[in-house]
Amino acid sequence: PAAALDLKEAILQLKKERNAVILAHNYQTGDIQDLADYVGDSLGLAYKAKETDADVIVFCGVHFMAETAKIVNPTKTVVLPDKDAGCSLEQSCPGPELEAFLKDNAGKNYYVIAYINCSAHVKSLCDVICTSGNAVRIVEQAPAERPILFVPDANLGAWVMEQTGRKMDLWQGSCYVHVEFTRDSIQRIKDEYPDALVVAHPECTQAVRLLADEVCSTEKMIAFCKEAPADNIIVVTESGMLHRLQKEVPEKNLIPGPTDRCACADCKYMKLNTLEKLHDCLAKLEPEVVLPEDIRARAEVPLLRMLEQSQ
Ligand code: 13P
Ligand code: SF4
């Protein structure tokens, strides 16, 4: 329709005027993905944010991702379409709670590894950050003599322990979307497509991961689906990934993993962003990510360590 075309044109025009770059996560709606300069997983987006020479970064994802872009770009303007685009993992580990926990357990001398799905405050309290795409590599490089505290995702943490054999103490957080997939819901779709392979995100529970042929970050799912020796692939992650995958791997039949209640799983936070809100945040340059400089500077250290260690 003409109105949608006008909106897209207006966004591209504003983008030029502002010298802005549009970064979008794999879970964004198809119309936002199609308009973005770069679409990827948290790791790819962190690298892109670090290397951009645009004046304005428009981050279509959730708040902690936009915040990550600001941490490595203190002089740039970072805006996001909806400031309420949160994340249940971020909420499961409030900065003051982690601060108190570390104080109470100071004797343990924890090496703290934070999954990137957390606030800048939590990042500022840890030694290194990881994403689902590099978690195994980052944990393998942790000092052998120190106990590890892994925050906030207990499912990702458990998967990394299985992969590396390294014991870690796990913060008990979870992603409300990925824990909706159950052994029964995935077994049922497997029974429907007996020759299908299953790829799942490591935020899924162990019961679901055990049914998967591959467990990996959203970006790595693309290579898996391309190379997998199967025509049918069940994709157990948030629904936006299917749009990206269908574009990149059109020759395969990609089947969204169902939950017990729905045929696929949406992240309500990721889906708060719309083309209209994307247009408005470019026009008004708000909502803008603003961070206290002391927190930003302290959060940048473990973030840069991650980028270095995952090369
Ligand atoms: P990826 O880093 O694999 O894209 O995952 C981000 C996320 O929010 C998963 O729920
Ligand atoms: Fe957070 Fe889960 Fe949404 Fe990813 S899918 S942004 S982990 S709530």
From TrEMBL:
- List required co-factors: [4Fe-4S] cluster
Entry EC no(s): 2.5.1.72
* This protein's UniProt keywords: 4Fe-4S, Iron, Iron-sulfur, Metal-binding, Pyridine nucleotide biosynthesis, Transferase
Q: In which pathway does this enzyme or protein participate? A: Cofactor biosynthesis; NAD(+) biosynthesis; quinolinate from iminoaspartate: step 1/1
In Swiss-Prot or TrEMBL terms, this protein is called Quinolinate synthase
